[in-house]
Amino acid sequence: MTDDGTIGVIAATERGRTAARLLARAWPERVRTFTEERAGEALRGAFAECGAVVAFLAVGATVRALAPVLGDKHTDPPVVCVDEASQHAVAVLGGHHGGNRLAGEVAAVLGARPVVTTATDAARTTPLDSYGADLGFTIADTSGLASVGAALLSGEPVRVESDHMWPLPPLPPGASAQTPPETAAALIRVTDRAAPPESGLPAVTYRPPSLVVGVGSARGAAAEEIGALVDRTLAEAGLDSESVRALATVDVKADEEGILRAARERGWDVTVYPASELAGVSVPNPSEVVRAEIGTPSVAEAAALRAAADAGSGAELVAAKNKSAEATAAVARLRPRGRLALVGLGPGARDLAAPRALAELHRASVVVGLDQYLDQVHDLLRPGTRVIASGLGQEEERARTAVAEARAGAAVALIGSGDAGVYAMASPALDFAGADIDVVGVPGITAAVAAAHLLGAPLGHDHAYISLSDLHTPWEAIERRLRAAAEGDFTVCLYNPRSRRRDWQLPAALRILAEHRPPDIPVGYVRNAARDDERAVVTTLQDMLSGGAEDVDMYTVVLVGSSASRTVAGRFVTPRGYAWSTAAETVP
């Protein structure tokens, strides 16, 4: 199996080849079409040479053709089969390693239905064989996967033990650190310790990338000596080399072949730091001799601590400086950073939510949001997800709660409608978030964009977004912005136009814009864009000022045209100003 992301596509019939061309057009840089006359040979060639396979063949024929070359579920590439009518995309192999996702992607291109049969995905639980894979976890021994997975799916109590809290997806409610060993049916461990105590239970042990080995050496020290010292230091501390994420040293050793080769032989990256930076790291075993020679009192301990802290939210030394004749080694363990995903769900309709937003909801172990938005996505959350809901007006509390949960080490999704960065939760959350958590932003379709497409093309030229809510912004500031947008001749998109207690701001804003607009300029408003009861209206500024805005509320977006905006066939259009359009006829 290659890891280059190439998708091998095989089709044996004209209908299959037509559908295959659709995939090639959709993913021109990913698809490689295999054209051998015999479909079985083409299939085996794609299986050997590509990172994934899409076969426009029957599942049975695909399985028979691939049976002689199947190896291991962890290394074989994912395979998806599509039927002759392109109605179903079936994840046949490698479901947890990209096959289920690929089936969904293929189905989206072809207008088909993805078919997923892996038990954990059918039950919406986190698959154990890819648990923590995006964080760099490896599995110490895969033999316990089936037994532990069966216990989870059956709802039996499973004990979870971890050296630290990592931002992992949720496990079913029966899996908990509070499960007593004597009542547990199975055990899940996340540890960098080489020999955890024997439990007598079916177990899966994950190795997180939590360790950094710091190394210093004399010039010309042999790789064999450095490697032996590193291995001994890990062994004496009871640490597993599978959890080492990198080797770190001082920059003057960046070309030291012994260090580079020792790291290369173990599959580790090498990170280097200037001596001046390492000199500022507090260590238990400084050396004035080393300071005099290279400018820092520590290489091994300081480099390990610095690299581990850079990769996490802090670090501790778990193996102090160890020496051989020509080298030193030390090991630091990082404290994992929690993860905060800022997720915009789009304007309301499920199919207008970004696939990445839905993936983040699956990924999160804690979801924080407004109660009504959480109700919209409850069916998407994995079993075991902790939900923290609050009501309108509690935005600061939601932001602080989400950041605090991430700071504690959880994988958190803070959700809202539209785009998280537009009049939503991203900015208050980032006001509180420090460098001790990872933050991921997921773009979402905004209410203004959804409304614009219902009205026509009102945002075709320069435009400004202004919120009319004076709860957080003084009206004087809002008024200045309105006048600037009016004088600048922007199309203006008004958010939060009217509430039960704020009923005068919208007429005031329209009067300001009317000072710089003709009365017949188009105005559009949309209530509940992309929801079941959406309502879109195209009218004029004069009509709005004459009482046409009575049904506008906080669920409504109002768009006021620039002086160039016009109504074309009942649609609100703001021309871009292309030279070729100046002679275009207006459609009645």
From TrEMBL:
The UniProt record lists the EC number as 2.1.1.-
**Transmembrane residue ranges:** none
Quote the InterPro entries the UniProt record gives. 4pyrrol_Mease (IPR000878), 4pyrrol_Methylase_sf (IPR035996), 4pyrrole_Mease_sub1 (IPR014777), 4pyrrole_Mease_sub2 (IPR014776), CbiG_mid (IPR021745), CbiG_N (IPR021744), Cbl_synth_CobJ/CibH_dom (IPR006363), CobE/GbiG_C (IPR002750)
Its pathway, per UniProt, is: Cofactor biosynthesis; adenosylcobalamin biosynthesis
User: Could you tell me the Gene Ontology terms of the biological process aspect for this record?
Assistant: cobalamin biosynthetic process; methylation
Per UniProt, residues of the Tetrapyrrole methylase domain are 339-544
Q: Which organism is it from?
A: Streptomonospora litoralis
UniProt domain Cobalamin synthesis G N-terminal: residue ranges: 42-121
* Record-given protein name: Cobalt-precorrin-3B C(17)-methyltransferase
Name the CDD domains on file. Precorrin_3B_C17_MT
The residues covered by the Cobalamin biosynthesis central region domain are: 127-208
Q: A Gene Ontology MF term for this entry?
A: methyltransferase activity
User: Which keywords does the record carry?
Assistant: Cobalamin biosynthesis, Methyltransferase, S-adenosyl-L-methionine, Transferase
Q: What class of enzyme is it?
A: transferase
NCBIfam families cross-referenced by the UniProt entry: cobJ_cbiH
Question: Superkingdom, according to UniProt?
Answer: Bacteria
Residue stretches making up the CobE/GbiG C-terminal domain: 211-332
